[in-house]
Amino acid sequence: MNFEQTENQKMIADMVADFAARHIKPKMMEWDESQHFPVEVFKELGKQGLMGVLVPHEYGGSGFGYLEYMTAIVELSKVCGSIGLSMAAHNSLCTGHILQFGNEAQKQKYLPKLATGEFIGAWGLTETGTGSDAGGMNTTAVKDGDYWVINGSKNFITHAISGDVAVVIVRTGEKGDSHGMTAFIVERETPGFSGGKKENKLGMRASETACLFFDNCRIHQDQMLGKEGEGFIQAMKVLDGGRISIASLALGIAKGAYEAALAYSKEREQFGKPISEFQAIAFKLADMATKIECAELLTSQAAVMKNEGKPMTKESAMAKYYASEIAVQIGNDAVQVFGGYGYTKDYPAEKFYRDAKLCTIGEGTSEIQKLVISRQILKG
Amino acid sequence: MNILVCVSPVPDTTTKITFVDNNTKFNTEGVQFIINPYDELALTRALELTEKHGGEVTVITVGTAGTEPVIRKALAIGAAKAIRVNCDPVDSLHTAQAIHSAISNESFDLIFTGRESIDYNSGQVAGLLAELLGMGLLNIVTSIEVEGSDVIATRDIDGGKEKVSHPLPCVASAQKDLCEPRIPNMRGIMQARTKQLNVVEYADAYNDTEYLSYDLPPAKGAVKLIDPANAGELIDLLRSEKKLI
After folding, report:
1. Which pTM value belongs to this model?
2. CB–CB of B185 and A10 under 8 A?
């Protein structure tokens, strides 16, 4: 087995690091402080080919596989989790859903715009009353001739306000029936469709999160993804791939926190020597590094299996679960290594710590990942 | 217009420099090589010029197969094709001769290098190459434009700048401030593998230079802090210890 990054992955890693140093690092604390969602950065990410990493060339994308996608998210998130999250959500969820389940006309219409960053994509599954229990959703679509009339709201939606297009999963059948939900593509200007108030969050503050409202929003039949009743099943498959992106996001944040702590521990002196020479700190660094390697191997495994078209529900859930849990632990450890300075915003540790926590919650909580893993290992 | 950009692979700027074989060889073990930053400027500006005036950019590197990732990075940034002269260059003259030999059957309007490579910092390849090619040299330019059959360039001189023009073809070397180096995009990275990379042999025996030994520069001394209330002590130290006054 070859555990080395390919030359393409190395080149992508360098490219993203250069991009982040130029376009993200100088302003990220300002965006974090003011909760500014920097739309212009996503236009630039589009020019770099990072808004359609998995989208084939014929639809204007970069045509890479999951390993390269993972590398891009990791490198971006090593610098700023918010930008990593928004990039991952755009690629995996909205764009990924249309790529996997759109018909040819839908793909031609939306993918080139999404892949180049002309459009920013949102994806709506969660509601105020239904997070983990997505099947119990209350937002409905009722057929009216060639149109569907959507009413209700979606909660905690990335790019709900700034998104140019959203894929939403709504109820078209009985509540609780996994075949009672359908996915639609909704454009921002559609009457009756609007974004709500932005959430004021602990971390990931430069990534926009808000609710989506539907008030007699009429959507043409042509905007339906796949067939009526397939929405929930599609969403679960989209989330299978999405877990690789959140695992990569968590891995990137963990690496960023660890590298900052490692560098600081060699510079900071106490009792006449660098604190890295004290076993208390050195062992902490050893733990951090080992956890990162584990998370990287799990995530790479899921990515390789996804590339090969193998079932990877268990592996992607394990990667997402493990990487996000260790990202929080490593964020915590990094703050501890930085000591008092780690608690201030002048040093990077506190932001990694705050951003990391989203990873154990978003796109399926750690508890849901354990549910997925346990069902997979118990079903045989 | 067709431009040749000479690209030197150099150790990443964060590399810890060590030597082997009784300090006669640079230890490349585990070293990450990058495009020499001045060459990256030359490449970016060359791409801008061909985008404006037409033509294409070729990159050339003198080095063994291990330099190919650096060449492919240059292709990912936007060069149309690449030449690798298969030889391990000994010094600047060796490099210039190898480039000269490899391009003897080709014609370029402009040959662009960095002002120097950041490893050995000799800054000689541009001048040597110009001499071998019988061309003029615009050395260390901070701007370069093409107007008709001339290049117009700016050079920093003591206390000011000079603006010079020279007919094409010629050799030029890039100084910082020339442009913002270009970052490759995903499409460029994917295309880099399918672009033409010609390997040419250069077998001339070369033994003008022999490396006797390498030494690291002395470690920086500790900083001496002087209380602002004792500014006189600073004057004394500058006079007696550093003998600067």
Report:
1. 0.91
2. no
